[in-house]
Design the sequence.
């Protein structure tokens, strides 16, 4: 346990990493974590260390994985039915231009392109447009 200048009491674990460097890791703070909980957590961290892994690096990797999972979930919710239909229209149905100025013909002629856009925007976009496309 260490006491900071502000009076906060924290439980720490000091150990040597696999490269020999001495590091310390905060386990928790006193009012939120009791001494018995700290001892249990300390034993878990020691087992991780004995198995050849660095507990601190493992915790950092877990945080990175959680952030990546959270970002992936946010991106899934941002991909709506309207965006999916727009992507389908621009990438497949409509004519499109390359960077060097060439025109790539779409799957349909101009009249058909307009008809597909009108049909898809009439019902799916108006009814389901803001819903997540991942659910379907």
Sequence:
């Amino acid at each position: 346990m260490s006491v900071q200048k502000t009076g906060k009491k924290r439980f720490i674990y000091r150990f040597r990493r696999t490269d020999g460097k001495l590091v310390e890791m905060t386990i928790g703070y006193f009012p939120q974590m009791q001494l018995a909980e700290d001892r249990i957590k300390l034993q878990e961290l020691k087992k991780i260390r004995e198995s050849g892994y660095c507990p601190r690096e493992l915790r950092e990797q877990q945080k990175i994985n959680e952030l990546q999972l959270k970002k992936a979930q946010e991106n899934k919710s941002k991909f709506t039915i309207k965006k999916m239909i727009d992507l389908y229209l621009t990438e497949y149905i409509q004519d499109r231009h390359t960077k060097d100025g060439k025109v790539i013909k779409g799957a349909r002629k101009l009249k058909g392109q307009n008809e597909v856009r009108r049909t898809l925007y009439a019902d799916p976009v108006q009814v389901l447009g803001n819903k997540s496309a991942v659910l379907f």
